[in-house]
Amino acid sequence: PAEAGPARASDLARVAGITTASATGLIDRAERAHLVTRTISPTDRRAILINLTEHGIEQVESMRPTEEVEA
Asked: pLDDT 10s per residue in the chain (71 long)?
């Protein structure tokens, strides 16, 4: 979820049930669409973390189901 914060591509791939290579391709496209950014992990300089941008958060929020209000 968006609330989970930055994640490694390998972690995102595992959760999505896809290969890391597939996740990397999806992340590349999401980055070009300004939905995510890549940053170096502050605790492991070898690791790249994927972060949702404000635009990415808006897109995720717009896809979430809304609660129906009973009249």
From this structure: 556 789 999 999 999 999 999 999 999 999 999 999 999 999 999 999 999 999 999 998 998 887 766 65
Evaluated on CA atoms 56, 11, 19, 21, the torsion sign reads positive
CA distance 54 to 33: 12
Can you tell me the distance from the alpha carbon of 68 to that of 14, in angstroms, rounded to the nearest whole number? 32
Predicted structure pTM score: 0.80
The DSSP symbol for 18 reads S
Task: Report yes or no: 53 and 14 within 8 Å, Cβ to Cβ.
Answer: no
- The CA-to-CA distance between both ends of the chain, in Å, stands at 31
Residues 6+ apart with CB under 8 A from 51: 5, 6, 36, 37, 38, 39
